[in-house]
């Protein structure tokens, strides 16, 4: 039947064999993927996010000098995306976004301009004009990549009270209080967590227990583990660990990071080594222990996605144009290719939705 299986969408860079956003249904038993509709046309929809009910999908248009955010309605029966509207991201090259836990706000990170914008969401899923734009300030140790701020991701805290913005250019994770009543992002106290100079924090994820958080650092191929104080909204670094095997000599940059829904494992993507780095998580301390690496069977794995049950991992290989499906061993956390894959031009982001009723 048309409504069987798990819905997922793939965001892409257009102009390299891609037309926009691609939708599929996945069989969790076999890992098989079937297209659900024609791609939704859009320029450079490089990152996707869904509202909590799975009714609407939002995408950045990673364009310069002005980016935008687009809203789509998800058809429950077919998975087809119907465009609703678009709004300016109030910055250049937006590369990441998230939806708050109530579905009332979309938060977007503008990489090029180093800013974060807050956009209200209407009752029909439509985006309203940004109600708050925060401009980051600062620079980092790498003059080529850190000449100024570069907001690379935005993540909501588990209690939906704070937004964490990893800024590659400043070597900081900025922390904001989300004032839903006023539609504002206000600096937290403390206002940021500082990382090792030249690290280049990129993506950020919380442990399911809410006591720990992790950022993957693009420029030095590391992961920083933090202890998280939910009362203060503060991050305290507790560990820095590399994502590459000992002795690797090639060029590499990291991209995405996700904690497994069980909280037992953490995964990070290596571009250059072309692998998923696998770590065990100590649930008492939050610290990581390296378990190994799995080839992504492609080139330049940018983002990857875990299905909500933690059964499968899908790696999006941007430069080889394929998305490869791996099964996760629930006891060891190790990955094994299922033999299922997709051919998609310049895939960048994989976003799962719960089955719609």
Structure write-up:
The protein has strands at 6-12, 20-26, 33-35, 40-41, 48-50, 56-61, 68-74, 81-88, 94-99, 105-110, 115-120, 132-135, 151-156, 162-167, 172-179, 184-194, 201-206, 212-217, 222-229, 234-242, 253-259, 265-271, 275-281, 288-295, 301-306, 312-317, 322-328, 335-343, 347-353. The two termini are 13 Å apart. It has no helices and 29 strands. A hairpin with a 5-residue loop joins strand 21 and strand 22 (265-271).
Instruction: Kindly state the number of beta strands.
Output: 29
Rg of Cα set: 19 Å
Oligomer: single chain
Global structural class: mainly beta
Instruction: Please trace the helix and strand order, writing H or E for each element.
Output: EEEEEEEEEEEEEEEEEEEEEEEEEEEEE
Helix fraction?
under 10%
Name the shape in a single word. globular
Task: Tell me the number of helical segments per DSSP (H or I, 4 or more residues long).
Answer: 0
Average residue-wise pLDDT: 96
Strand residue percentage: over 45%
Q: Separation of termini?
A: 13 Å
> Low-confidence runs (pLDDT<50, min 5 residues)?
none
Largest beta-sheet details: 5 strands, antiparallel
